[in-house]
Every structure is written in structure tokens, then in C-alpha cells.
Specification:
Rossmann fold; 3 helices; 2 strands; mainly alpha; about 45% helix
């Protein structure tokens, strides 16, 4: 029996002046769907994206169970390198 791991992620948190979905609405939907909710800004804080993806990978590898497993340092370092390659260094919006 396999269990899916679902995350609801809202991006562009830094653009609140053009927000279309309120944070509370996202949290409510996540609660109704029994999934985790994250709201972040990839443009301003790519570290948050790294943390979120790390949690997704960890949850998927645990089969959605809450218990922690010991992480291998090389795995998290390679994940950080991958995210850094995708998003690059922090860029300022114009």
C-alpha cells in the first residue's frame, strides 16, 4: 500500500500587491485536502525553495510518515548544489 505525499505551494509571496489567492484560503484548502501548505518567494529567498524541496523529498522517502531518518550529508549538499544551479545566485528585481 503506497501513500501519496501532497504539498500545496504558493509562490510569488513577494508580490502581495497583485495577490489573487489569500494565504488563509491556501491554508484552508491544504487543511481540507490534508496536505502541507507552503507560501514562499523563489525570487527573494531561494533558500526557502531548497528547504521546501528537501521536506518534500524527505516526506516522499519516508512514505509520508512523520518520523525522521538520519540524512546523509552528501545528499543534502547535492540537493543544495542542484537548487543553486537551477535558481543561481539571488537576483534583484527591477
Amino acid at each position: 500500500d503506497t501513500e501519496s505525499v501532497i504539498f500545496l505551494v504558493g509562490n510569488k509571496q513577494d508580490l502581495c500587491h497583485i495577490r489573487e489567492v489569500e494565504r488563509e484560503e491556501g491554508q484552508k484548502l491544504a487543511c481540507e485536502c490534508r496536505c502541507q501548505f507552503y507560501e514562499l518567494s523563489a525570487a527573494e529567498h531561494y533558500q526557502e525553495v531548497l528547504l521546501m524541496f528537501s521536506k518534500i523529498v524527505r516526506s516522499a522517502s519516508l512514505g509520508g510518515k512523520a518520523k525522521e531518518r538520519r540524512r546523509r550529508p552528501s545528499g543534502s549538499k547535492s540537493m543544495a548544489k542542484l537548487i543553486n544551479n537551477v535558481f543561481g545566485k539571488r537576483r534583484k528585481s527591477v
